[in-house]
Amino acid sequence: MQRRLLAKSLVDLHKEYNQTCEAHHVISYRQFVRYKPFFVTEARSNDRNTCACYQHENMRLRIDSLSEKGILSSKSLSYLLSSITCNTEDLHCMNRTCTKCCYDEIKLVAYNPDERARWEHWTKEDVVVGNKTYKNWVKKTENGEIYYRDLSCFCQYPEMCECFKPTKMRMDDSSNANSDHLQPDSIQKTYAESPSTDVEKNEEYTVGKFVIVSYDNKLFVGQITKLLLDNIEINCMVQHGKRNVFKWPNKPDCIFYHREQIASVISKPEPNQRAAQLTKYDWLLFNEI
Fold this sequence. Notes:
Blueprint: E1 4-6, H1 10-20, H2 29-34, E2 40-42, H3 54-68, H4 77-84, H5 91-94, E3 122-129, E4 132-139, E5 145-148, E6 167-170, E7 187-188, H6 190-193, H7 198-204, E8 210-215, E9 218-228, E10 231-236, E11 238-239, E12 246-247, E13 254-258, E14 262-266, E15 270-272, E16 275-277, H8 280-288
Parallel strand pairs: 1-2
Antiparallel strand pairs: 3-4, 5-6, 6-7, 8-9, 8-14, 9-10, 10-13, 11-12, 15-16
């Protein structure tokens, strides 16, 4: 008899089964495992494309901690990926360059902002043994830095509100071990209090984002396709007259522009029959530039 491999874990399959079956067919996890045919087995490491590097392991540890705090609705990494991508096996979706799902974000469950989340994190450390230096994996407990953004505000663009941009929160060492509250001095706004850096500019212009670019005293709407130092390749759309109607040309119009030629970053154009149109705010911004 041919061996069958499970594409998902038994926990995820049991959850999907109870959600899709009728009420009188709901069974427990132990009974679900008992009814599994013997020739259906979970995939081993050599049966699937898996990775156990420290980056993916750190991601799993972080997801486990956030789900235990109630911030994430699931511990399954495959479920979280499928919620923000069209296809988990498509490289464009996984690289966040897909025009359909590049702006999707993981939905967070309501939680207590005063409660601090902790998780384990793998790091590399050079260990000197005699006259030789070795790479060694260690676990340390230390205070780190996280970036967060106020989600209670309804702003969607940095030009409208200052709280759109992320804020850096540093967890400083404290002599009081029982103190779970953050000190006011440890909260620093990187954009409001410190000058912008090249790293922050690179985070603003990423592949897949839509921008307004100026060329020959004319404005064009396009999507970033490649980054090369200060030059950015943009695939521009064609505007029909002076209306809020944009279409993709038959042949891609990909041209490198200098970073200074980009007027603003906009949201993804909304579909309008066979064309696309800018949002109300982006259309006003397009006419005012």
